[in-house]
Amino acid sequence: MSEMKIEFSENGICFVSGKLNEYMNMAPVVHSGKNPLILNLKGVVSTNSIGVKMWIDGLQELREKQISIEYHECSLPILLQCNMIPSFSKNIAIQSFFIDYACADCGEEKTQLLTLEQVQQNDYPIPSCPECGEEMEMDKEDILDFLEWTS
Questions:
Q1: pTM of structure
Q2: Shortest CA distance to 76 belongs to which of 143, 22, 148?
Q3: Average pLDDT for residues 18-22, to the nearest whole number?
Q4: Hey, what's the torsion of the CAs at 77, 78, 81, 85, to 10 degrees?
């Protein structure tokens, strides 16, 4: 998949998938007329610096129109950008995101969806390793830095 794909569901959720890169087109998102604009980012597989800049420029246009933005089901590439670049998620309600867990005993990895509410209440499931049954771990201190500057 070389380009970003945008689809709006019947209930108005904008599903973004593919790559955030120099070939992406933010116009369907920026001019959707949705408020709030709910972006489901589960399908985003990678980003590059040009795509991130274009995304941030699109977010700025939405903010200028006073559009409320929510991120749902953020993929790991999106979450990493949220952590590195405050303007990628500033004043955006991040509702849910995928987190990688790893087993310290056998090295097995697993991805799990968490909600913002679960993390804020420190009430999220700790998965058991599917291989050895031990509790898996995540490094939430580093991966959840974005919580400092989101809404």
A1: 0.89
A2: 143
A3: 96
A4: 180
